[in-house]
Design brief:
With 471 residues, the protein is α/β, with parallel strands linked by helices. It has 15 helices and 20 strands. The protein has a seven-stranded mixed β-sheet, sandwiched between helices. Strands 10-12-15-14 form a four-stranded antiparallel β-sheet. A three-stranded antiparallel β-sheet has the order 18-17-19, with helices on one face. Helix 3 crosses helix 8.
Amino acid sequence: MTYIKDELCKLASSDMYPLHMPGHKRRLDCDINPYTYDITEIDGFDNLHAAEGIIKEAEERAAALWGAKSSFFLVNGSTCGILAALSAALPKKGHLLMARNSHKAAYHAAYLRELQVTYLYPVFTEFGIQGGILPEQVEAALEADESIEAVFLTSPTYDGIVSDIEKIAEIAHQHGIPLIVDEAHGAHLGFHPYFPKSAITLGADVVIQSLHKTLPAPTQTAILHWNSSYINKERLEWFLNIYETSSPSYLFLTSIDECVRLLTEEKEKYFDAYEKHMKDFYEKASHFSNVEVMGEVDLKETEGFAKDPSKLVLRATKAGLSGEELYQLLREKYHLQLEMCQGDYALAMTSIFDSEEGFDRLYAALEEIDKKEAAARRTITPQFLTEAYAKRTVRISIAEAQDAKTAEMGLKESVGKTAGAFVYLYPPGIPMLVPGEEISKEAVAVIKTCRENAFRIHGVTEDGKIKVVIS
């Protein structure tokens, strides 16, 4: 019998280095017994859902730090913030312009609120990852359909690609609608000139950030920033009441507040050291021949606005390794645990709490891999991600499909049917197939490629069946 605690203790005592979230990297000193500080809403400790005391003060400190009109602590992760923001911004059955590479929480909001969704498809970079959403895409979509009531996009992406939020916000506001930004992977942005600016200061109406992804805070901690004249604040708070637990953990609330305290008092010290580590790593890695580390120079203006350097996008196809093989090699031989892998590349996540030793270990491992020449090969085509996230034909809404009668069907037989469930790679959790979309032969081919390459795919049974709408 294996208990979770035993496995965590084993991991903690090993030399496995975390190049993944959470951003504290298990290096944040804490000498407290968590059970000593685990309380409910007793006298003197305020209430998250009706804050007027110490929680209100803490949220005001956070708003001042990030430059928001109001900020709300989230203990259900960015998920509840996305659900609340979209629910508050749009009426039921409203029309949303949404980036197709959005987190599944946005799709869940579309289902719960029965939204009509028009998609913005991110461009693909020559490096082989999804790029950003371009302002001209947003402009064209809004000009084509005046019924759209809000814009939602992810910036930065899981891989660190940043869209031109300032221009997109300006376009949305010219059309009289709000811009909501999922900045879950960008809570660290805006604190140092080495990194792109945060959407909070660039005109976005609501910005949702996962503190735990890139800052020293535990998993599940997040924050929502409100800066809008288009989205009613009271309505936003009402939906947070609905989607967030009524029993918030004071350990999480304290952790968020302590993260704010650290950034307020010591951000220069941490971010200056972080900048040095990052610059040193990129400079040394630029001399590799067979291992590629994506840098700012690898992103064209037509692919995205900027790249967040904290995300290390690694590719070793010239060394004969797929993303999965590189990921596994770094884990098994070098004891470096990356965040994820997909197609040709693997992703390492860094933060202000990464050590110099951690960067040195990653560089040494990649240097060794780089020297071992092998016949360049690909287990999948370079266009895999383009095919995986290609535009699909929408037949019915997400809500209609999810509420319809469905049945499981083999992949071959499902061609031409309507999807009854999501199919996506996780991570990153971006749907390749959305309920209500036509299941094309191209979509089935991509799903088969994922299965053949043992990618972590959700929405397909072990025997290769997916849900289709039958009525």
